[in-house]
TrEMBL record:
Coiled-coil regions, chain positions: none
InterPro entries in UniProt: Fe-S_cluster_assembly_SufBD, SUF_FeS_clus_asmbl_SufBD_core, SUF_FeS_clus_asmbl_SufBD_sf
Lineage, top ranks: Bacteria, Pseudomonadati, Pseudomonadota, Betaproteobacteria, Burkholderiales
SUPFAM superfamilies linked to this entry: Stabilizer of iron transporter SufD
Domain called SUF system FeS cluster assembly SufBD core: residue spans: 136-360
Top-rank taxon, per record: Bacteria
Name of the protein in question: SufD family Fe-S cluster assembly protein
A family per Pfam: SUFBD_core
Length: 403
């Protein structure tokens, strides 16, 4: 027996024994994922892609290389496989565990990025990681580890081949040691026929800080799931998601788990669907007993931009301690008619006017998680935002992002 295949076969056996995500699963009842077979590919088929599994470190013009060490792992090599799996959390037993088992069943390569401590007064490490899909069904894995005192800005982008239907089950594990700080910008714009499930699991130690901006568009199925474990006292998370979908399905789930005093979490999502799209925004914050002075905030908003889309907003707080501050809310709205009227009066076509208003709303949401003006021009989300809006409103990217 090929021992390199044992973990993959064990994962398939687990799925066969325990089944796929049931339709009654609370977090997935509004937008059930495709069945397990869609994420597993053909058992025993060797991956002909590159050993880096599609990841590449792109140069940021004008920025010298940062203090980051990259290493690729090959599951076919027992020593590397053991070292890799010891660093990856177990799938657990929640509603999304089946995705993690399906990922293990297909996993062949992984990338680990380690960022060292940043010297006092020095600029943060700047990284641009891009993933290009190279298979019809794939399971990329990225481990990002920030040592104590490290400061990093990461732009993570995903490229999907036009016209090629890709099924991608990605697992991203972020580990922030004491006092580490990460600003994470994520752009995931799949095609109409792509099925995508991205799972980000972050663990924060004492006084660590993580800020994430997500820009995502719809596909045949698109799930963005974030789980934040605030383990150390004073750890903080701020996340903002802009969900654009002209058609298709898109869901973001954010789960913040407070397990220490003085922890803070802020979750914001803005759903901007059009036509016949289905968009679900779910936030769940749990504050455990003993979390003195913990703070939690959720803000979910939905604005249809065209047609008759379906929007589901699900804020939820689970609090097991008294000495905390927590607030949540969900609001519905519409694009401001007065702004549309004035834009039309100035000779701007209606589709472009809608795109410009949506661009302003999106920038405001993202800026509340990360101060975009402090980032290098090459690491902002302007280009991705323009591309997403162009697809949403069937415009040229130059028309979509600028007035």
């Amino acid at each position: 027996m090929d021992t390199a295949l044992d973990p993959r076969r064990a994962a398939r056996a687990h799925l066969a024994a325990h089944g796929w995500i049931p339709r009654r699963a609370e977090l997935f009842r509004h937008l059930p994922p495709p069945p397990a077979a869609a994420w597993l590919g053909e058992e025993g088929r060797e991956d002909s892609g590159p050993p880096d599994c599609g990841w590449s470190l792109r140069e940021v013009p004008g920025v010298p290389p940062g203090a980051a060490a990259l290493r690729w792992f090959d599951m076919a090599k027992p020593a590397q496989r053991v070292r890799l799996m010891s660093a990856v959390p177990s799938p657990g037993d929640d509603d999304a565990a089946a995705f993690a088992w399906a990922h293990r069943a297909l996993l062949r390569h992984a990338l680990r990025v380690r960022v060292g401590a940043t010297a006092p007064g020095a600029a943060p490490t700047l990284l641009h990681l891009e993933h290009r899909g190279h298979g019809a069904v794939e399971a990329p894995l990225l481990l990002l580890e920030l040592q104590a005192g490290a400061r990093c800005v990461l732009l993570e982008t995903h490229a999907f081949a036009p016209g090629a239907a890709v099924t991608q089950n990605l697992q991203l594990h972020v580990m922030l040691e004491e006092g580490a700080q990460l600003q994470h910008l994520r752009s995931v714009l799949p095609g109409a026929g792509d099925r995508v499930a991205h799972h980000v699991h972050a663990r924060l130690e004492r006084e660590a800080a993580y800020a994430q901006c997500l820009l995502a568009t719809g596909g045949a199925y698109h799930l963005q799931r974030n789980v934040f474990e605030l383990k150390g006292e004073g750890a903080s998370v701020a996340t903002a998601g802009v969900l654009l979908a002209a058609n298709g399905a898109l869901e973001q789930q954010v789960l913040a788990r407070h397990a220490a005093p003085r922890t803070r979490s802020g979750i914001e999502m803005l759903a901007l669907p059009g036509a016949t799209a289905q968009v679900v925004a779910s936030a769940h914050t749990r504050i455990a007993a003993g979390c003195d002075d913990a703070q939690a905030r959720q803000r979910l908003a939905g604005i249809p931009v065209a047609g008759q889309p379906r929007i589901v907003l699900r804020p939820h707080l689970e609090i097991h301690h008294d000495q905390v501050q927590a607030a949540h809310g969900a609001t519905w709205g519409a694009l401001p008619e007065e702004a549309l009227f004035h834009a039309r009066q100035r000779g701007i076509a209606e589709a472009q006017a809608r795109a410009l208003i949506v661009a302003g709303l999106a920038r405001a949401v993202l800026a509340r998680a990360i101060d975009d003006e402090t980032l290098p021009a090459q690491m902002r989300l302007e280009e991705a935002l323009s591309a997403a809006l162009a697809r949403q409103f069937d415009l040229d990217p130059q028309e979509a992002g600028h007035g």
